[in-house]
Amino acid sequence: MTTTNSLTAEDLGSAAQRDRRRRILDATIALASKGGFDAVQMRAVAEQADVALGTLYRYFPSKIHLLVSALARQFEDTQSMVSRKPVPGDTPSERVIYVLRRATRGMQGDANLTDALTRAFMFADASVATEIHVVGMQMTAMLTRAIKGEAYVEGEQPSDEDVAIARVISDVWLSALVSWVTGRATAEETAEHIETAVRLVLR
Amino acid sequence: MTTTNSLTAEDLGSAAQRDRRRRILDATIALASKGGFDAVQMRAVAEQADVALGTLYRYFPSKIHLLVSALARQFEDTQSMVSRKPVPGDTPSERVIYVLRRATRGMQGDANLTDALTRAFMFADASVATEIHVVGMQMTAMLTRAIKGEAYVEGEQPSDEDVAIARVISDVWLSALVSWVTGRATAEETAEHIETAVRLVLR
DNA sequence: TTCGGAACTGCAACGTGTTTCTATTATGAC
DNA sequence: GTCATAATAGAAACACGTTGCAGTTCCGAA
User: Is there a contact between B184 and A119 if contact means CB atoms under 8 Å apart?
Assistant: First the structure.
């Protein structure tokens, strides 16, 4: 099964190619931020990134691949800015809630972008497994780090239990974001639901 | 905001109209069952339901509305068959796992249908809020009933706590189904993840 | 520097969800 | 039964994701 994946930064030999990739993702984020999922139109992305449509499809084999890759980059950028300081809070539950509140506020600060990224993530099918997996790992890492707090050491594998808990919380977080993005819940309800879930799951 | 909703059975005056609606949903389920989300093509649904394309759109304003309505009907049918007998199991956790196992097996018995219905559910935007809400209510009802067990009485409002728990479990259940449908998790992993979550949330 | 292949451009075309429009048919008030 | 109105059929057209292709440009090996 040679599923066609998105080209990652490492796949790309020349600086010009890495720059093309960057421009494409920048254009994607910009368009998503302006009008959500529907505004991310492949022709528009190509034009704004100053790249031919065919080239766009060579880098990202579908709109969903494109958006999930954009999500991965966003996530990575955010995490690299935050992950130096330890997560504040005395209990796992406090720390997880702190992290999620931060992340949720970030997402809610740009509803259109969140719309585009979460909808793509939820709609992704098997062909996007690789890209999805990247995001899943990032999310798990963020949450297990918060669960462990001071006890966290770089590179160490979290326990199965912690991973299971992290997965449950990610599931709830994603669903909650979807509910918010689609107007089925307010920002407050969303935050509350997430925190309730965290308290239920963490002791 | 007068969002256009799907026509429900009660909206429809004549028997001929209710029959058209039924034929449309039958065709939707049949096509979904054969080829999943992509196979539910509006022209194909219209043809198989013996209805003009414009009529199909009068009954269901989009493919997503159509599929989520189909999901609601499926859910309702299943529940009405099951909800007479009490849920077996001595603890809330056992009962919820029983119910979810049943439901999950049902979904996994028809992967294509599940693909179509869950993907539609997750992709739905604000305009589908009404239809989504129906399904959410059904799911909550199923779960709170399982949580309460013998103590359940028809028509009584479940406690806030039980509703919160039910929502967390639905979130996880849906995410797990999506992972399974998109080939990111096997049936066993899916079942295991769901049961882990239930045990975490229910004491 | 030259050459061959890979990458890129520009553009046309296709499939499917959605919209629109006109002609026809069913329905309900009188 | 007649008429006004709503519902439906049928078909064309549009929008956007995706594919295919001919020509051009870039890049590394010789």
Answer: no
pLDDT confidence bin for B143, thresholds 50/70/90: very high
Do residues B56 and B42 touch, judged by C-beta distance below 8 A? yes
Interatomic CA distance for residues B75 and A79, integer angstroms? 40
Distance B43 CA to C9 C1' (A): 35
CA torsion, points B51, B55, B58, B61, in degrees to nearest 10?
60
**Cβ proximity of B115 and B184 under 8 Å:** no
Mean residue pLDDT of chain A comes to 91
Q: Is the pLDDT of residue B93 over 80?
A: yes
What are the b/e assignments for A144-162, b being 16+ CB within 10 Å? bbbbbbeebeeeeebeeeb
Residue B168 and residue A157: Cα distance in Å, rounded? Answer: 26
Q: Pick A122's closest partner by Cβ from B132, B176, B178.
A: B178
Question: Within an 8 Å CB–CB cutoff, is residue B178 touching chain A?
Answer: yes
The four Cα atoms B134, B35, B101, A122 give a dihedral, to 10 degrees, of: -60
Task: Work out if B51's Cβ lies within 7 angstroms of strand D.
Answer: yes
A183: pLDDT strictly greater than 90: no
Q: Please report which confidence band the pLDDT of residue B87 belongs to, taking 50, 70 and 90 as the band edges.
A: very high
The answer to whether the C-beta of A13 is closer than 7 A to strand D is yes
DSSP conformation letters of chain A: --PPPPPPGGG--SHHHHHHHHHHHHHHHHHHHHHHHHH--HHHHHHHHT--HHHHHHHSSSHHHHHHHHHHHHHHHHHHHHTTSPPP-SSHHHHHHHHHHHHHHHHHT-HHHHHHHHHHHHH--GGGHHHHHHHHHHHHHHHHHHHHGGG--TTPPPPHHHHHHHHHHHHHHHHHHHHHHTTSS-HHHHHHHHHHHHHHH--
This prediction's pTM: 0.91
Q: Within 7 Å: CB of A12 and strand D?
A: no
Contact A182 B132 (CB under 8 A): yes
Count of Cβ atoms closer than 10 Å to residue A9 Cβ: 11
pLDDT digits (tens, 9 = 90+) for B62-77: 999 999 999 999 999 9
Torsion of CA A36, A42, A47, A50, to 10 degrees: 110
CB atoms within 10 A of CB B135: 21
Other CB atoms within a 10 A radius of the CB of residue B173 amount to: 24
Q: Which amino acid is at A200?
A: L
